[in-house]
Amino acid sequence: MREPPAHAEQSDSLIELEDVRRIYVTEGGVAVPALRGVSLSVRAGEFVSIVGQSGSGKSTLMHLIGCLDQPTSGTYRIGGRDVRSFDPNGLAWLRREVFGFVFQGYNLLPTATAEENVEIPAIYAGLPQARRRSRALQLLHSLGLDDRADHLPSQLSGGEQQRVSVARALMNGGRVILADEPTGALDSGSGSELMALFEELSRQGHTVIVITHDAVVAEHADRRIELLDGMIVSDTPTRSIARAAQQAQPSLDTPDDGAQTASSLADTWEAVRMAMRSLRTNPLRTFLTLLGVVIGVASVITMLAVGEGAKERVVDEITSAGANRLSVWRDGGRQAARFTFEDLDAVMAEVPNVESVMPELRGNETLRYGNVDREDVVVMGAYHDYPDADNWPVASGVFFSEQDDRTLTPVVVLGASVVDALFPDGDPLGKYVLIKNTPLLVIGTMTRKGGWIQGDRDNVAFVPARTSAIRLMGQKTLWGFQVRVEDTNLIDQTEAAVRSLLEARHGEGTFNIFNAIEMQEQMSEAVAMATMILGAIGSIALLVGGIGIMNIMLISVTERTREIGIRLATGARRSDILVQFLVEAMVVSAVGGLIGIVIGVGIGGLLKTIVPDLWMSFTGMPMIVAFSCAAGTGLVFGFAPARNAARLNPVDALAHD
Ligand code: ADP
Ligand code: MG
């Protein structure tokens, strides 16, 4: 942003106050008039001292001149332009580019080095880092602080700290240096050194306004203004003012070189660096804040992985059972179709796109070998093509043939669990087992299937369909059967054809047909819903993490009010402060999000070793979503605290301790 040049006709004065008043209203509602009609004009290049008793309004006046505060009434023009015509960004521009503040208490950021403190105004001016650094070092050099550049304020003497703050005031040019009792906290030696420095700055063309108690100090100035009870009681030249006017710096609308590339916080990297630094200052707190987000993200992605795993498992089980099939069931009512093996033959022969048909013949029976019983075995009446159709090969021996089925041969093929139970240490082939007192010759065993949703799928015995129906169950009709289609894309047409064939044979409404693909879709939807619920539960943890961030950020803003004041006084825009705190919140939550993902996957791995049957599937999507949610949480929950920080009034923030 570059401020437009002052519009008013060029006035002789750089700073002009007309009947300026400032009335503070205390919390109790009492009005305290700190300035009661001050009129004053200061020309560019003047060196002015302001004296007066404590409480006479000197600091108030200084804050108004430096645009840290606004007059209650009266007019303040700078470079001929009314300060009321500047918006908040314009005022920040004035603080950044025109004024340089030197405070009695130095007001350096305690966690930043001398050099970094000096750089601050240039960060907000958008100066690139290399140039910022070299200018800061050059200023420190000219103030005799070369070897102190990387010291923290606490490692510097008062005089050194004050010179660092002078360097900061000069960083963006410092056309008007405002110093509020700068020597107040210094010993007399450092004090007179500092005053000599101000004199030198004045000679170089800076406009210098110094508040002081010290009469000797005031002697250095061109002009001495005395305040009493919020009014100017005397304004006397101490030397020739002519000198000042001659050497005056160019007026306000001539920009300094370099300092004009003002942009919002130079770049995001700068903001992230600042955030990292302030997060490092309080590691325990940062860790605890992180923890909330970590737990949130870890639980979201673990929950989603469990849900996703369940979904894959369901799809897998249905697909392994055959997604390419239609299930035909007789209706439950009185009109129930009485299907026969002839119906199955007819479907096979007459309906196109049918790969095979399979009768639904199953019952839970006890199998006996010798004197060992195996209860609750699923005895399935099947066709000879079952192993092919269901992708379930035999492990040993053979499956029965079509001939076995047609001739009601009493043979059986056993599932792996039944073999385990009845033949723990012998070969079952060639042995006879009893089902319902009918001896059946074991001619084969099935490979082990494993299984979860449908229970133990290996607890099974296959018997030829007709053998089962007639010899074991004593029934000629079937409850239902399955139709496998060749081309699943045509499954709807096949379903219609099967329907019309069976309606012709048994009548309408006597049976139902289920489509496996539809069933699979419905199941997947149901599981997806469950996954969402799990995810939502995880999100609650994330929400709690977010509230943690907000809480910490609110505390942090309160604690760092003074820092915010310093930043505002050195020219930060509201948006810079907002961005700074938002970035802090987002850095915490993003780092927490990353750690959360790692921990979530770790927990997943651990759970899997403890509960091997638990299916978990970590896919990229939930991680991206959880991470974005975490960063978004920082953004959302960091916003209110950041906005509170950005809205602070510079003087109020500086007065905070
Ligand atoms: P000086 O700097 O000359 O000591 P100040 O400008 O700080 O004086 O204060 C002038 C008067 O305004 C004092 O009476 C002081 O108590 C009052 N004052 C200053 N700041 C505030 C404030 N934020 N709220 C209420 N009264 C204030
Ligand atoms: Mg004061």
Itemize the secondary structure elements and their pairings.
Blueprint: E1 13-25, E2 31-43, E3 47-52, H1 58-65, E4 73-78, E5 81-82, H2 88-97, E6 99-102, H3 114-125, H4 129-142, H5 158-170, E7 176-180, H6 188-203, E8 207-211, H7 215-219, E9 223-228, E10 231-237, H8 242-246, H9 268-281, H10 283-322, E11 325-330, H11 341-350, E12 354-360, E13 362-369, E14 372-382, H12 386-389, E15 394-397, H13 402-406, E16 411-414, H14 416-422, E17 432-435, E18 438-446, E19 460-464, H15 465-472, E20 480-485, H16 491-506, E21 511-515, H17 516-559, H18 561-569, H19 574-610, H20 620-646, H21 650-655
Parallel strand pairs: 3-8, 3-9, 6-7, 7-8, 14-19, 16-18
Antiparallel strand pairs: 1-2, 1-4, 4-5, 9-10, 11-20, 11-21, 12-20, 13-14, 13-17, 15-18, 16-19, 17-18
Helix pairs in contact: 3-4, 3-5, 9-19, 10-17, 10-19, 10-20, 11-16, 17-19, 17-20, 19-20
Bound molecules: adenosine-5'-diphosphate and magnesium ion.
Task: Write a concise keyword list for the protein shown above.
alpha/beta; six-stranded mixed barrel; single chain; binds magnesium ion; binds adenosine-5'-diphosphate; Rossmann fold
Question: What is the mean predicted local confidence, pLDDT?
Answer: 86
- How many individual helices? 21
Unreliable runs: 1-10, 244-251, 253-265
Shape category: rod-shaped
- Compute the CA-based radius of gyration: 44 Å
Numbering strands along the chain, what is their spatial order in the largest sheet?
6-7-8-3-9-10
- Cα separation of the termini: 32 Å
Bound molecules: adenosine-5'-diphosphate, magnesium ion
Tell me the strand percentage band.
15-25%
CATH class of the largest domain equals: Alpha Beta
- The CATH superfamily label of the largest domain reads P-loop containing nucleotide triphosphate hydrolases
Judged by helices, strands and strand pairing, the structural class is alpha/beta
Number of strands: 21
Task: Summarize the main sheet.
Answer: 6 strands, mixed
| Structural domain tally | 3
Report the CATH architecture of the largest domain.
3-Layer(aba) Sandwich
